[in-house]
Amino acid sequence: MNTTPATATPTPSARAVAQGSPRELGRRRFLAASASVVTATLLATAAGLDTLPSHARAQTPPAPSSPPTLDAITARLDGLYRSTGTIARIELTVVTPRQSRTLRMQSWARGEDRALIVIEAPAREAGTATLRRDHNLWNYLPRISRTMRVPPSMMLSSWMGSDFTNDDLTQSSSYRRDFTGAVVGPSTEPAGWLVRYDAREGTVGLWRRVEMVVGDDLVPRLARHYDRSMRLARLMRFEDIREVDGRRVPTRFVLEPQDREGHRTEMRYLSIDFDADVPESTFSLTELERAH
């Protein structure tokens, strides 16, 4: 007698339940695929792989570079336009709510303590000149054929009615000598590095603090000048940066005083030649009065 238990043959409806209906099979495949995608993403993230699409990767900001040293920034600012001999042609436009006027001039400089600026146009001001030797400054007025010494107290006065001072035009001050500085950190507007310079105790000058933003190339982009009461007195933007004789320099400046609405002064280099042959006699009073 056969004692092997009989095996029941599944009915068609039972097989459908065990294997799943077409709708059930589709749901299971979708869940399995979703689990595979999630697992792959987690593994990729854990492995440090970038799963962003290419266009998203392009929008990810790069990691900030290490900040430059204060010594490097200060040396760059102080030596931006200084050389053994510099000759430049400059256009200066003074804008006020009522009018604007433009001066064209030529300048010669040598090292840190020699500078001469001569106005060429307009005709009514042609020949007016400013000479700096060491810490001394003179103005030559061709209309009266007279040379006048500018006292130290006037170094921070307006030059030719512009928003620039005598000190600005002759580059008499030095960040290294007259200020103590610190690299504050990254700047976003404009992009670069924010540097703060505070006037040394006993320094005679108009500015108690200067905040400068420089790029990674150490070229200035923006300067904020604070007066002795720590009020923001003026903004200066450095624009149109170009390479001239192997050095990157701004060739356009826009200066906006903060206490006079509608006033600004724009200065633009038309040409500039570094390490030019500029004789010492260029900066003598005799030459100033004789030639200009």
Primary descriptors:
22% helix, alpha+beta, 13-stranded antiparallel sheet, outer membrane lipoprotein receptor (LolB), chain A, 292 residues
Strand content: 35-45%
User: What sequence of helices (H) and strands (E) makes up the elements?
Assistant: HHHHEEEEEEHHEEEEEEEH
What is the radius of gyration computed over CA atoms, rounded to a whole number of angstroms? 35 Å
Work out the helix count. Answer: 7
Q: Briefly, what CATH class?
A: Mainly Beta
Query: Which consecutive residue ranges, at least 5 long each, have pLDDT under 50?
Result: 1-19, 22-63
CATH homologous superfamily caption: Lipoprotein localisation LolA/LolB/LppX
At the third CATH level, what is the topology name?
A: outer membrane lipoprotein receptor (LolB), chain A
Give an account of the 3D structure.
This protein is α+β, with helices and mostly antiparallel strands. 22% of the residues lie in helices and 38% in strands. The protein has helices spanning 12-19, 22-46, 54-59, 70-78, 166-170, 175-178, 285-291; strands at residues 86-95, 100-110, 114-121, 129-133, 136-141, 146-150, 179-188, 191-199, 209-214, 220-226, 232-244, 247-257, 264-273. It has a 13-stranded antiparallel sheet, sandwiched between helices. The protein is globular and about 55 Å long.
Summarize the topology:
Elements: H1 12-19, H2 22-46, H3 54-59, H4 70-78, E1 86-95, E2 100-110, E3 114-121, E4 129-133, E5 136-141, E6 146-150, H5 166-170, H6 175-178, E7 179-188, E8 191-199, E9 209-214, E10 220-226, E11 232-244, E12 247-257, E13 264-273, H7 285-291
Antiparallel strand pairs: 1-2, 1-13, 2-3, 3-4, 4-5, 5-6, 7-8, 8-9, 9-10, 10-11, 11-12, 12-13
